[in-house]
Amino acid sequence: MAKITINSKTYELKKKTMQIAKKIEEMFSAQSLIEQYEKQFEFVELILKEEEIVEIFGSNNIDDIDLDELTLVCNMANDVYKEKINEQQKKSAEKLSNNRAIDKIIEAGKSLENINKLQNK
Length: 121
Description:
The protein is mainly alpha-helical. It contains four helices and two strands, in the order E-E-H-H-H-H. A two-stranded antiparallel sheet has the order 1-2. The chain is elongated. 14% of the residues are buried.
């Protein structure tokens, strides 16, 4: 389960559903700053409980909260949602890079074999 830590307290986020994915897309495609903050707040309302929103921001009213803090929380949550995928992609890239290294070693070994054969003739 995805979690974020704010002010030394950990909050469990709701699982990433299609509704949350759509809200993330809306958040990042907002045309104006005001629309962006509104979409961010809607995102927070989807992923956290109301009492957690009040605990983090001091209010559950967008007009009363620090909008920079809102943006930071949204960015943190989005990063956490992407974390599993990023980890898997990193492992795949490492595996691929290891396979390439092994291929190079095998190739070098075959070259040495060929050199030895030529020297022994």
